[in-house]
Amino acid sequence: MSTESIALPRSAAPPRPFVDQLHQWVTTVDHKRLGILYILFALLFLLVGGVEATIIRIQLIRPLNNFVSPQVFNRMFTMHGTTMIFFVVMPVMFGFANYLVPLMIGARDMAFPRLNAFSFWMTAFGGLLLYFSFVGGDGLYGAGNAPDVGWFAYAPLTSKTFSRGHSTDFWILSLLVSGFGSIGTAINIIATILCMRCRGMTLGKMPLLPWLNLTMAGLVVLAVSPLTAAQLMLLVDRYLGGHFFDTQAGGSAVMWMHFFWVFGHPEVYVLVIPAFAFASEIIPVFSRKAIFGYPVMVAATMCIGFIGMSVWAHHMFTLGMSSSANTFFVLSTMAIAVPTGIKIFNWLATMWGGQIDFKTPMLFCAAFLFQFLIAGLTGIMLGSAPFNWQLGNSYFVIAHFHYVIVGGILFTLFGAFYYWFPKMSGKMYNETFGKLHFWLFFIGFHLTFDFMHVPGILGMPRRIYTYEPGRGWDIWNLIVTIGVFFQAAGVLVFIGNLLWSYLRGALAESDPWDAWTLEWSTASPPPSYNFADIPEVKSRRPLWDLKHPEDPDWQYE
Amino acid sequence: MQSSSIDGAFRGDDTSAGTSVGERRSNALIGVTRSNHANLVKAFVTLCATAATAFTEPAHPSMNPTNIFAPVSTPAQSIFDLSIFVLAVTAAIFIVVFSLLAYAIVKFKKRKTNDGREPTQVYGSTQLELAWTVIPILIVVVLFLAAARVIASIQNAGQPSNAIQVTVVGHQFWWEYRYPSLKVVTANELHIPVSDLAHPTPTFLTLLSADTDHSFWVPRLAGKTDLIPNHPNSMWMDPHETGLYLGQCAQYCGTQHAKMLLRVYVQTRDEFDRWIQEQSRPAHVSDTVSEGQKIFEQTACINCHAVGGTAANGRFGPDLTHLMSRDTIASGAAPNTPVNLRRWIQDPSLIKPGSKMPAMGLTDPELNAVTSYLETLR
């Protein structure tokens, strides 16, 4: 690898007028700018989805509360779920993939820069379309009306009979539009990783982050396509007299469930595999050790991808499938615990014997390991079909999947924000506020989601706008709601830290973490062309080789 | 140093000491994992089983009437037994992995006295990775077999000839119960006989839906099963103790999903037979309330409601023939008192906003008359 690419001088161009800059951002096809646009878009929606969650929790703070009406409550949980899945976690993962994949494989951009821009704007307008329903949901009929059919929108609640007006149409169209964006980005990630790696980077020498994003992108193509098809069928039902899901005319409500969950379960892996990718980059660097068992980590990821396509009906254990179907989906669901367990053990072994430096990114990743362990174990409980007949659709499920999505995904995501913030912004974040964010969010997370398991065990179903007193649920719901305020405070500290650091923070070096992958070999922030000379690598840790010429990795791989 | 060593590729950053340091580290890792595993599993399986049982102890039924860990019926009981096993296994896994993680982050935290040298680089270990692949596979097989057994025992249970058969129809937002062989139709409060071991009389439910998806969940009696239009389902229960068992709809079905409450009255066989007998009779019609009956039959009430033996034979709403035999109205949302009944007829959204029953805009005298009429339907 050439040394020129290690430390490029900071570009010293004079600042441009605001309109010029705005124009550049809107028309950009640069993977880094699109990545940042994705991330900012997701952060905005994170705040919106967080407000919705807070409204839900205030309503449930005590039995028979009247903070919001049932109609508003139903809109809130529908919008919260749809927003967080489709317009927060997916875009933010695409954003990081966009930003990091070309840098980590030594490329100058994604394979299809224009498709990249197109995909981002499709996702962005999909999100805006969803929220436009608050204004235009009922169109000519009067006041706005957001979707209230639940984020998995089971048929036949979505049919014209039960869901009048246009709120459900906004839900369908926004997911249809953003779905095309997701498929575009996934194709782009696959093409980039397969075709644009720098010299010497065989698939076996590629860092884990691109590997995991390759798996994620493959899953997006396989999973979002059936969802898109189902949305089209639902539109046909609603407007062209189709009967796919119209049970009054012989359609099948169960078919919608299959369509949705054959998307919905791989979607969990679409979200969590990039989170694994962050952990697989951050844990080695802050433990000062190479990732333990690289080939097994790749194999386990692919394994999760393949098995993940065959477990969808564990979301449907209560719908009355035959005992043999239930048994099969128990087996496939439990099987996925094996590769997931391998990953946890390999991260553990990576830390073992290291010198773990608990800077903010590593704090978040360490908490992720514990929390993801618990999420996996409650997943095993839910995967045991008979246990699921009790726990399914209860608050236990809500606690379980928030343990995955918040405790697993969001924690590593926060870690990733702090880890790559110096690279993206060229500034260092404030470590004290980073740690404050961690502890606030950690306390809030555990108050909310640890105690949320209990009302589920005590028989509290999900999606109820209020509950009866005397069921033993009151105290648990109170604690759960209190936790939300800690989480909100944590997120505000996070946003404040990012803003303050961007405007006032110390300048970041090109390689503040003494890390090993190619993105740290170029300036912070990287120039638009990424690398003055396209690097050439000989191992999975090219910067280790550079820093330890007496003892390079390629001698051992 | 050879990368084809049996423990995989590892080495030290200090090449002169690389081989010995690397091997020692790698072997230590194997040793600790194995001994921890063996000891901890033994010690904690018992502990976890105790903890899981302890958790259910304070959950007294009167405090937690919908606790899944207080089963009184065979399906709920076999799920409970499986749950305890699954909880014990997962708790054991949790304690082992948690301890290892906690040990690692404390033991290998960067020291203040760090000399700036990179730690020994270990790239992997085939033996270790094989171990933490094979052991989880074995655990998974055990958990799978345990689940498969319970699935078969619940789903494939035969229906004895003396079983009570009830057809449950889910509506937005109430429950309709039909006893086809006993010629009884009622709403929102299910009555079934207790099933003692000497004379088992299980109840088999056929689950249908009139509109959207619903789910029948009375945690102490059985797991939940969905009611899906065009997709008849079934479930069964054989409660061993009399009493009132609560639950509620567990599949989002629209605005008032939260107030689609379930009440199951488990009665002795005699009480149940008496109840069936009372429910089979036509409505009690009294001349003193003929004014209310007239209003009831001349407004839209009878489009949806039936009162046996009268002109009212609507089927969209609950059958009111024996309304006053029920403890609650509005699918459990309010106690069945004259005041509540009057409020409900006046404007259902006062009790259950989003309910499908419209406010009929009756005047006060009309309201009083209709309420008085309904109060005679015993």
Shape, per Cα inertia axes of chain B? elongated
- Please report the distance between the alpha carbons of the first and last residues of chain A: 18 Å
Low-confidence stretches of chain B: 1-38
Q: Major sheet of chain B, described briefly?
A: 5 strands, mixed
* Helix amount of chain A: 55-70%
CATH class of the largest domain in chain B: Mainly Alpha
Shape, principal axes of CA atoms of chain A: globular
**Strand arrangement across the biggest beta sheet of chain B:** 5-4-3-7-10
| Number of DSSP helical runs of chain A | 16
> What percent of the residues of chain B sit in helical stretches (DSSP H or I)?
25-40%
Report the mean per-residue pLDDT of chain B as an integer.
86
Which structural category do the helix and sheet elements of chain A fall into?
mainly alpha
Element order of chain A: H for helix, E for strand: HHHHHHHHHHHHHHHH
CATH topology of the largest domain in chain B: Helix Hairpins
Query: SSE order of chain B, as H and E?
Result: EHHEHEEEEEEEEEEHHHEEHH
What is the correct CATH architecture of chain A? Up-down Bundle
The CATH architecture of the largest domain in chain B: Orthogonal Bundle
In CATH, what is the class of chain A? Mainly Alpha
